Amino acid sequence: MKRKTVILIGSEGLIGNNFKNFLLRKDLNVLAVDVKNRQNTNKGNFIYLKKDISKPKTINDAVKIAEKFFFGADYVIDCSYPYMKLRKNLSSKNIKILRKNLAVNITNPIMICEMFCEYFKKKKKIGNIILMGSIQGIMAPKFDHYKKTDMNSPVEYTVLKFGIVGIVKYFAKFYGKNNININCISPGGILNNQTNIFLKNYKKDCLTKGMLNPSDLNSALDFLMSEDSKMVNGQNIVIDDGWSL
Ligand SMILES: NC(=O)c1ccc[n+]([C@@H]2O[C@H](COP(=O)([O-])OP(=O)(O)OC[C@H]3O[C@@H](n4cnc5c(N)ncnc54)[C@H](O)[C@@H]3O)[C@@H](O)[C@H]2O)c1
Predict the structure, then answer these.
(1) Does the C-beta of 163 come closer than 6 Å to ligand 1?
(2) What is the CATH number of domain 4-239?
């Protein structure tokens, strides 16, 4: 049987790197795409493409590589977060940052869905796209969690992540009849050296654990990639230890 192939975008990040290791433990080919430098460890079922996903050419190149070295692409998982600069406050002085953040981070997932859906459709392949949302894409931030920290959650992040939920619904409806599934995973905060005060504030609104480990997302990824989720399309799977309750 032909081994299936995943194009994993943002493979060198906190969540992407965890997904990469998870996927490589399975019987899959992984074509990882990220802008970061990485020692060339291409071998057997793993190829690394150091490229910027905001360029349509990168998507075309990834498809070509998947076609040449594997049996084409079957799954696309986008864990990239291209423009990370977040405004510290709601000041119009920072309007350039706001514009860039919205433009890049909304354009990319739309382009990824459009181009890969067209690829799957043209090739008559069963396609599967998984995007990353966030708990900030299902409700307003819990502002009190940021008190006495230098962290914040600006309105653009909320807009971007609500946008992801809209994107998966739109494309699932548009391409679902072509046997293409498009869903997103919305995690709660992931542990990454946050201050104790923030961790404590955050945990107060959760049930058992509070902030998550990246590996807490693996079972949802596994489900969305499985045959069992064939009837799940255009949905947002929230994994947040009760943060949103
Ligand atoms: N970390 C969290 O707490 C958390 C919580 C909820 C949702 N999310 C979402 O999950 C996703 C991944 O988050 P993360 O924490 O792993 O982010 P991260 O910053 O650790 O990783 C993002 C990766 O994307 C890569 N990247 C950036 N621009 C790129 C480009 N133009 N082309 C290709 N690769 C590019 C970066 O090099 C990096 O490796 C994001 O959408 C984020 O909003 C994260």
Answers:
(1) no
(2) 3.40.50.720
